[in-house]
Design brief:
Elements: E1 3-4, E2 7-10, H1 18-22, E3 34-36, E4 41-48, E5 56-63, E6 71-75, E7 79-80, H2 81-95, H3 101-110, H4 128-136, H5 143-157, H6 171-175, H7 179-186, H8 192-204, E8 206-207, E9 210-211, H9 212-216, H10 222-230, H11 237-246, H12 257-265, H13 273-284, H14 291-307, H15 315-318, H16 324-327
Antiparallel strand pairs: 1-7, 2-6, 3-4, 4-5, 5-6, 8-9
This protein binds a DNA duplex through helix 5 and helix 11.
DNA sequence: GGTAGACCTGGACGC
DNA sequence: GCGTCCAGGTCTACC
């Protein structure tokens, strides 16, 4: 079997800027993701799944010299042609390189505030499964707890690469665990059974009886996906809306306590929380299919006004300071 | 259809 | 160092 050299060149859309577009969503601060602000490099372990053999973990470091230039993905060990193809596919999903540049332009036409900096793409995970589990670990907890859960999931159940770093566990790995084991090792609390159940569904290829592919199929209507998601364990209105945006469907807002804080702090709204949620939702409704991005980048700019530009944040120092109490300061 | 309370964990706070 | 309180979305029971 011929082995590929461990440097892959990955073409990008003409608007793509690595440092801006990786540091665009909180997941860049969650393990196994790691952004190196000094080197402007993104590193993480990718787990390559070959049905015929054991999962294999490789550490990939991604850099870019300038806007629109192809990315260089440096892999820490030799890979086969098939594995190189899988790395490209995972990186493409994670960085949303397959999202049409025309869609970004349409967003900027509707909300011109983000045109100059070029904000439009949001980081997500290399797999739909990781996006769903990360969303569940963000429900009913403060951000530092979400950080801890993801770190422990990787530490205890992630596949280790040659570098010793670990990736995000696969659905099969978590589906094999007892809920109590997950709770004890990862501190996921009552989410234990829900995470194992979701993992078992992913491992079988069907979520609530619906093939996983149908969720990622562009032909499936947004409302249909939302309906399916709401039926899944641990997924409520907030999580469903967040998963929808992770699937590239930006018409719904994940309304949570951050929405209320944003409504009060930035939009000057007053009154009880439920009313503010409804008003924030109505405030962004005119952005239609781009509502989430208009909402998110406005919120992201608020975070940057407190902590500096996101590509300067250091995971170990900055990430844990994103608590509601500290953001009110 | 709407609402109250339980579910866990970790950080903040008071002593 | 210990105990208590609180924040955070989903789920179930109940009206």
């Amino acid at each position: 079997m011929r082995l590929k050299p461990p440097r892959l060149s990955i073409p990008v859309p003409t608007d793509y800027v690595l440092w801006r577009d990786v540091c665009s969503y909180g997941y860049f601060l969650l393990e196994p993701n790691f952004w190196d602000p000094a080197a402007k490099a993104f590193r993480r372990v990718l787990t390559l799944v070959d049905p015929a053999s054991k999962p294999r973990a490789v550490t990939v470091t991604i850099t870019q010299t300038k806007k629109a230039e192809p990315l260089t993905a440096t892999v820490d060990s030799k890979v086969t042609n098939a594995q190189a193809t899988e790395i490209r596919a995972q990186v493409t999903r994670m960085l949303r390189l397959d999202e049409d540049a025309a869609h970004i332009r349409a967003f900027h036409k509707l909300d011109a505030r983000w045109k100059k900096l070029g904000r439009g793409r949001l980081l997500r995970s290399p797999t739909f499964y990781e996006d769903v589990i990360k969303t569940v670990t963000s429900c009913n907890v403060t951000w530092p707890s979400t950080i801890a859960m993801n770190r422990r999931l990787c530490e205890h159940f992630g596949e280790a690469g040659a570098s010793g770093l670990r990736g995000f566990p696969t659905a099969h790995q978590i589906a094999r665990q007892r809920p109590a084991t997950l709770r004890a090792r990862c501190g996921v609390g009552y989410r234990d059974a829900r995470i194992v159940e979701l993992s078992a569904m992913f491992a079988k290829g069907k979520l609530g009886g619906v093939p996983v592919e149908a969720f990622e199929d562009p032909a499936t209507p947004d409302d249909q996906i939302r309906e399916w998601l709401i039926e899944l364990p641990g997924i409520g209105p907030y999580a469903a809306a967040n998963i929808l945006q992770l699937l590239g469907r930006y018409g719904h807002l994940p309304l949570d306590t951050e929405t209320v804080r944003h409504g009060r702090t930035v939009l000057g709204m007053k009154g009880p929380s439920p009313g503010i949620m409804k008003r924030v939702n109505a405030h962004f409704a005119p952005f239609g299919a781009h509502a989430f991005r208009a909402y998110w980048f406005e919120m992201w700019e608020f975070y940057e006004s407190k902590r500096g530009r996101s590509w300067t944040w250091e995971r170990e120092k900055t990430a844990s300071t994103f608590t509601a109490a500290k953001l009110k300061l």
